[in-house]
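Dear colleague,

Thank you for sharing your sequence with our group. We've completed the structure prediction you requested, and as agreed, I am returning the results in plain text so they can be pasted directly into your records. Please verify that the sequence below matches your submission; if there's any discrepancy, let me know and we will rerun it promptly.
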Amino acid sequence: MAGANANFRFVNAMLNIGYLTGAIVITEERDRFYVRQTGNEQLDIPVFLPNLGYRMPPRNSIKTVVVHCYSHITDSGTSVKPVVVSVSDPSVLTMPPMSNFLLGFRNKISSEKLEHLMGEIKLPYHRDGSIKKEFLDLLKEENSQDEAISAIIEMYEMTRGSNRTGALDNNGNRVMIAGFVDRRSYVPPNEYQEHGHGRVDIRQHEERDKSLPIRLVGSQVRPQLERVKHPGVAIKVAGRLRRKIVPAPDGQGIISDVVYIETDLLQRANQGQDILSVPGWITTYRDEMLRRREAVAKQSPDTAPIEGGPTGGSDEALDNAG
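Please find the predicted structure tokens below.
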């Protein structure tokens, strides 16, 4: 049984915890901020405040944000809604050496100056963790007498030739969820994809419309979906948060904007460890699904097994993501 000090990792007695490390982006939206982990701002992960009185983290700072994941219905369909649990400085476990160096220079420069320097560059480093030359040039141009900037340039010159570089590692975007399968489906590959992907909705709440959308990827999607074909199966996923924006064909506005959890592995959940207690509503749900399967089998012995709950269906925005 998990200790009391670990209860923050659970929602409704089921594992639900996420860790995001990146640059904090503040917009005019009062109920959320964004965590930027790449040079593409459309991939920024929105993180919602638990209440409007919650203090925003400093703009452009690098932080580790702990979240709980919920679902909500948007104009684009079902989307994951990460909600803040805590915000802290990143550790060496969540950021590699070069990113720790980046943390150093970000925290030495005021938010206003950093925002001015970044301009259209968005992120000051490449995906491999090395600092962009444009950013270094801006630093030199801005004020070569500034002690903080001088220290940054000196440190960069010292580390540039070493192998202690790297982008945000896997610990910088990590989500762990346990719950009960509500429905699952397979989406065949399109003309540009080698493999299809799976859609699995995980329930942690009695209300079915609160199920979390999981996108299963990789070469073993079909066998994994087959192992969780009955609604009510207890599973656990370790994955990452992804965001997919589809722009309108004319470039004016967007067609869809969804956040989802992506994983390449579905695991059986352990009661007492991943699921602390089994709620009564899931027992009722399992019994209902069993009766439905038995009724279908009696009426049409050759009919394929039911793959989801009573409403079935799919979420086009998520199914087409990626």
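Summary note from our side: The CA atoms of residues 32 and 49 lie 5 Å apart.

Kind regards,
the structure core
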